[in-house]
Automatic annotation (TrEMBL), chain A:
Residues 45-124, 140-218 form the Cytochrome c domain. The cytochrome bc1 complex is composed of a cytochrome b (QcrB), the Rieske iron-sulfur protein (QcrA) and a diheme cytochrome c (QcrC) subunit. One of its GO terms (molecular function) is lyase activity. This is Cytochrome bc1 complex cytochrome c subunit. It is found in: Cell membrane. Its main location: membrane. Heme c 2 binds at C153, C156, H157. It is a multi-pass membrane protein. Its EC number is 7.1.1.8. The chain crosses the membrane at residues 237-256.
Automatic annotation (TrEMBL), chain B:
It is found in: Cell membrane. Residues 259-323 form the Rieske domain. This is Cytochrome bc1 complex Rieske iron-sulfur subunit. One of its GO terms (molecular function) is 2 iron, 2 sulfur cluster binding. It comes from Cellulomonas aerilata. GO terms for cellular component: plasma membrane. Belongs to the Rieske iron-sulfur protein family.
UniProtKB/TrEMBL annotation, chain C:
This is Cytochrome bc1 complex cytochrome b subunit. It comes from the Bacteria. One of its GO terms (biological process) is respiratory electron transport chain. Residues 534-551 have a biased composition (Basic and acidic residues). It is found in: Cell membrane. It comes from Cellulomonas aerilata. It is an enzyme of class 7 (translocase).
């Protein structure tokens, strides 16, 4: 049921903006099946493999020991959560220098991502990958999550997480298909333009409430098709296209002489 | 623009004495419908009309059945089902009647066009004079000519009478009319900065690099009308590398270790400006896209706003909590005529 | 049985008639003729969606509580449980989720509002482009325009009633706009909100405005609007047999009772279908009003989007002026007050401008084909384009997010387009109109192409054209191309300066702008000339012989080319 609903979100949003379909299905598609999160202790060998992977794939921009270069920030102290988010959603390695790194099918396997994360985490303390309990939507308070979400998140991600525009070509992505783990990691690490929401700003419980709220939005709207949940603009568009369209079609039928 | 043939052409080829314009050929021939000529088609159309009425009846029954048997329930899915069934029932119930009536009119009713004459809307001169005369007679009957004081008294009374409704209405509708309230908020020296909406006071140490906090005054709930005060007092607080921060001479002491706090009410028309992009330190308004640079005194870098966001001077108290040094030094929010008075 | 009913009906009718003279009205109106055309139904969509608004609105008032008192929500919607909100918002949730059919009625009400405004706009477009606003209907145009404005007011006040975050931010923007008004702005803001925004009074006040003041005005004006339609008798499209002195169509009873009456049910049905299948204004997504949150995609309903767009496009730098110690915010005043003011004034005043320019005092009941009035059509399209650009600008963040464009670039492009696009559209539309008129001339002069090629004895090929019949032709020639006015000289015969010369000069200059470019309809002599030329350049150049003499020599086909007798015959009959 939830998977069905999630896919409907995925489809309906583009239809709403007519021509959008082509762009979005290609651009935003990201296979993000929820994976059980775990903060298992990393072994030495994982760190070593991670280091090798890093030197082969990331060091060009981030420097040989992740100290950062002119092109890319230092990764010392960004934590495992940051790596898991950036690499696990395919944002890193970055394809080309656009306004922001786009999500795409990840380049590494889950295991490789974990090894990279272990390596970066070993460079300095930073936010860890959340535990399964921290991100369990069932344990969160949806109503509290709603209040936190709309104060801290909705201005960029839209009231129910449909996404929105930022300045100069950047955008806040839709959260329909983001797994609870990815949402949590984004909050603690503040990827790209997004600010950081540390545990003092939003406590871990509050973060779980937010996740609970976001996940609850995926069951669809009581009123019927959601029209992308983008607000009055798409409603107006449909009022013209379907409403006025149907009524004018009926008018033409009424006005035409019977054969 | 058009190509007029020369007169000689016309006389040569067109024959003599053609009119300047064409004239209306009059009504075209009436075309019969299939239902006029074919009794079977006529019968079929009748059946279709009956069918459409039947669709309407079924729709209404569907609505009533759904109303009784399908309650909205507690989940989005059950509400959706209830709404869908009721709506489809209503749609069929209404649309069926409409379609039946129209189909009937189109196929079975007499469709010979009729012609009504139009008459000029301007009444005859006689009528008009009659109207003028009636007015003049009435005026004469009223005996108001040369009674200037009477007329003056009447018009004065009529003009003044509405005041007894208008004056209290206008007097009361704006409550106390004290527009100086626009210029003050409940921020004052020592008021703690608290997290919105939880109301937790915030310590400076908790505001890590790259963080954005949505802030309200900790004393907000003490107010008689918290929403009115919140509408003016909301603040966005961020921390950036102090090296990135450009501060004006007279505001040197307003930030704390790279933590700056600015009014969240847009100086354009008052939307909450809240889209903080931590890499560029730009703050974007989702309503009209005014963009402010928080690293540079919240100056406007793009969009329809003209003034920077007012800055809230902050510091920390003995317990390490962030507090305001004072109220804002200028009115927050959109401009108004008396802003600087 | 039937006779009993019949007798009962007759008795009732007699009873009523003796007390109301209703038979006089029925005799006069029952068989009143209305012309048939689909575009005449656009206004009916507006009327019927208003009726739907009244019906669904009454339902909603039974459950909605216009109060700003704070309550805590308890109900089936988990994301709101325990949340503090106004009674207005809580009652909106209750009527959406707990009242059976309540959500349907709410969605029908909101969709009907969008359809109401959209149909008013399309109806206005029809009236504008066909010139239905000309004498004697100028006042009805103004009435309709006032209804448009009242519709905006009704929509905006209703949209704000649920007291949610989205509409609350809309009200805050309205407050910001009001405050920018010089001198009185702050006081008008206090007047509206009963003190500072948001205050405690707004929702009850909006409720009164929304369910009493504005609908009563709309209802009264609709009455006046329809009364004038009856008085003037409906306009009709041009065609043979239709003149300014008659009206051709079907009688009110029974054809329009069935068609227009049926259309009400169709409109209600279609709106119900929208309400059944598509979510509108899901206030439970936005949450109860709080001045701090805001969500991406913060926009008003579509009919207010042009204002939002204007506000977004205006550059702010240097647009706030000090006048003495006072502040004048041109960055708000220009887009929110002055630009819409200009656009709406142009719209409302156009009939009077056109009447002034043409100097025409006659009554017009036959509509124009838009192509035959190139300036008007182009002007209307230009205004529509300006509105469209503003509406798109109001949606710029959604365009940016979903087409992967830069928000800032879109705004920059729209800033230019707002000025350039209407001009371009004006020029292009005017050229298209003139082109279509020439196409009409071409068709009248040379007839339809038949696809049959005929070869003459001397080897020349020619296509046979089928001449238009009298009715087809009348549609294309039965108009008058307005020409620039000729005015009397500034001084009369005795050399005295004439009064009103200045006004005439303005009128002449404007009329040149309006009518300099025009295509005259084909005249009978042109048609006759074209036919005798056989639409044939080489023959014309050679002046060798009339076409008819060549007919016999044609090797293919066998039908005539175009026969002059055919063309002039209908006219001969009419004379």
């Amino acid at each position: 049921m939830k998977a069905l609903a999630a896919r409907r979100h995925h489809r309906s949003a583009p239809v709403v903006l007519l021509l959008l379909a082509l762009l979005v299905t290609g651009g935003l598609y990201a296979a993000l099946a929820p994976t059980p999160a775990g903060a298992a202790e990393a072994s030495e060998s994982d760190i070593q493999t991670g280091s090798d992977l890093f030197k082969a794939n990331c060091a060009t921009c981030h420097g040989m020991s992740a100290e950062g270069t002119q092109d890319a920030p230092s990764l010392i102290g960004v934590g495992a959560a940051s790596v898991d988010f950036q690499v696990g959603t395919g944002r890193m390695p970055m394809e080309n220098n656009g306004p922001q790194a786009l999500a795409k099918p990840p380049q590494f396997t889950d295991e490789q991502v974990a090894q990279l994360a272990a390596y970066v985490a070993s460079l300095g303390p930073g936010p860890a990958i959340p535990t399964a309990e921290q991100i369990d939507p069932e344990q969160g308070d949806e109503a509290n999550g709603m209040q936190i979400f709309r104060t801290n998140c909705a201005m960029c991600h839209n009231a129910v997480g449909a996404g929105g525009a930022l300045s100069e070509g950047k955008f806040a992505p839709s959260l329909w298909d983001s797994s609870p783990k990815v949402i949590y990691e984004a909050m603690v690490t503040g990827p790209q333009a997004m600010p950081v929401f540390n545990d003092a700003n939003l406590t871990p419980d509050e973060k779980r409430d937010v996740i609970s709220y976001i996940v609850a939005q995926r069951v669809g709207s009581p009123g019927g098709a959601e029209l992308g949940a983008l607000g009055p603009v798409t409603e107006g568009l449909w009022a013209w296209v379907i409403g006025i369209g149907l009524l004018i079609a009926c008018s033409v039928w009424i006005g035409a002489k019977s054969s | 623009m058009s190509t007029h043939p020369s007169p000689t052409d016309i006389t040569t080829y067109g024959g003599a004495n053609l009119p300047d314009t064409f004239t209306d050929p009059g009504h075209g021939p009436h075309r019969l419908r299939r239902t006029d000529t074919d009794p079977a088609a006529n019968k079929r159309a009748e059946r279709q009309v009956v069918l459409l009425f039947a669709v309407s009846i079924i729709g209404t029954v569907l609505f009533l059945v759904a109303y009784v048997l399908v309650p909205p329930g507690d989940t989005a899915a059950s509400m959706r089902t209830s709404n869908l069934l009721l709506g489809l029932g209503l749609f069929l119930g209404m649309f069926g009647i409409g379609a039946a009536a129209v189909h009937w009119a189109k196929t079975l009713m007499n469709d010979h066009e009729r012609t009504d004459e139009r008459h000029s809307l301007t009444p005859s001169e006689e009528t008009r004079q009659g109207a003028v005369q009636a007015l003049q007679e009435g005026l004469a009957d009223a005996n108001v000519a040369r009674r200037g004081v009477l007329k003056g008294a009447m018009f004065s009374a009529l003009a003044l009478a509405p005041l007894s409704v208008a004056v209290p209405l206008i007097g009361e509708v704006g409550e106390d009319w004290d527009i100086t309230k626009f210029k003050h908020t409940i921020w004052k020296k020592g008021v703690r900065l608290a997290s919105d909406p939880s109301g937790r006071p915030i310590r400076a140490a908790e505001v890590t690099l790259g963080s954005a906090f949505h802030v309200i005054p900790a004393n907000l709930e003490d107010e008689e009308h918290p929403l009115d005060e919140k509408a003016k007092a909301i603040v966005l607080m961020v921390r950036m590398d102090p090296r990135d921060l450009k501060e004006a001479e007279d505001r040197r002491g307003w930030s704390y270790e790279g933590i700056v706090a600015y009014s969240k009410v847009c100086t354009h028309v008052g939307c909450p400006v809240a889209l903080y992009e931590q890499q560029t330190h730009h703050l974007l308004c989702p309503c009209h896209q005014s963009t402010f640079d928080l690293a540079d005194g919240a100056k406007v870098v793009f969009g329809p706003a003209n003034r920077p966001l007012p800055q809230l001077p902050i510091t920390v108290d003995d317990e390490g909590y962030l507090v305001a040094q004072s109220d804002f030094h200028e009115p927050i929010g959109p401009s108004f005529w008396e802003r600087l008075t | 049985m039937t006779t009993t009913i019949g007798r009962g009906a007759a008795a009732t009718a007699d009873y009523l008639d003796q007390r109301t003279s209703v038979s006089v009205a029925i005799k006069g109106l029952a068989r009143k003729v209305f012309p048939d055309h689909w575009s005449f139904l656009l206004g009916e969509i507006a009327l019927y969606s208003f009726v739907v608004l009244l019906i669904s609105g009454v339902f909603l008032t039974m459950f909605y509580v216009p109060s700003m008192n704070e309550v805590h929500y308890e109900g089936p919607w988990a994301a709101m449980n325990g949340v503090e909100m106004s009674e207005a918002f809580a009652s909106t949730l209750r009527l959406s989720f707990e009242v059976r059919g309540g959500l349907l009625m709410r969605q029908i009400h909101h969709w009907a509002a969008l359809i109401f405004m959209a149909s008013i706009v399309t109806h206005m477009m029809r009236v504008f482009f066909t010139g239905a606003f000309r004498k004697p209907r100028e006042l009805n145009w103004v009435l309709g325009f006032t209804l448009l404005i009242l519709g905006l007011l009704a929509g905006f006040s209703g949209y704000s009633l649920p007291d949610d975050v989205l509409s609350g931010n809309g009200l805050r923007i309205a407050d910001g706009v009001v405050r920018s008004i010089p001198i009185l702005g702050s006081y008008i803001s206090y007047f509206i909100f009963g003190g500072e925004f948001p205050g405690q009074d707004l929702i009850p006040r909006l409720f009164t405005v929304h369910i009493l003041l504005v609908p009563a005005l709309i209802l009264a004006l609709i009455g006046a609007h329809l009364f004038l339609v009856f008085l003037h008798k409906h306009t009709q499209y041009p065609g043979s047999g239709r003149t300014n002195k008659n009206v051709v169509g079907y009688p009110l009873w029974p054809v329009y009772v069935a068609k227009a009456g049926g259309f009400f049910f169709i409109v209600f049905g279609v709106i119900a279908l929208l309400g059944a299948t598509m979510t509108i204004n899901p206030v439970w997504n936005y949450g109860p009003f709080d001045p701090s949150p805001v969500s991406a995609g913060a926009q008003p309903d579509w009919y207010m989007l042009f204002l939002e767009g204007a506000l977004r496009l205006m550059p702010g730098q240097g647009m706030e002026w000090g006048i003495g110690e006072f502040t004048l915010s041109l960055n708000v005043l220009i887009p929110a007050v002055i630009v819409p003011g200009i656009l709406f004034t142009l719209l409302a005043g156009y009939p009077f401008v056109e009447a002034f320019v043409t100097g025409d005092k006659g009554e017009h009941h036959v509509l124009d084909r838009p192509r035959n009035r190139p300036f008007r059509t182009a002007f209307g399209m230009a205004i529509l384009t300006a509105f469209t650009i503003l509406i798109l600008a109001g949606s710029n963040d959604l365009i940016a997010a979903h087409f992967f464009l830069s928000l800032n670039d879109i705004i920059r492009v729209f800033r230019v387009l707002f000025f350039v696009a209407p001009v371009l559209v004006f020029i292009i539309t005017k050229r298209i109109c003139l082109g279509l008129q020439r196409k009409d001339r071409e068709l009248v002069l040379h007839g339809h192409e038949t696809g049959r090629i005929v070869r003459f004895a001397h080897g020349e090929y020619i296509e046979v054209h089928k001449p238009l019949d009298a009715h087809e032709r009348w549609l294309r020639v039965g108009y008058q191309a307005e020409r620039p006015l000729e005015i009397e000289p500034p001084v009369d015969s005795r050399g005295v300066r004439r009064k009103g010369y200045r006004v005439d000069q303005v009128r002449q200059r404007l009329s040149r702008v309006f009518f300099e470019d025009r295509v005259e309809p084909v005249t009978p002599s042109e048609l006759a000339a074209a036919h005798s030329h056989g639409a044939h350049d080489t023959l014309e150049a050679g002046h060798s012989a009339p076409v008819r003499e060549l007919e016999g020599t044609a090797t293919g086909g066998g039908r005539t080319l175009v026969e002059p007798v055919d063309g002039s015959a209908p006219d001969a009959r009419n004379r």
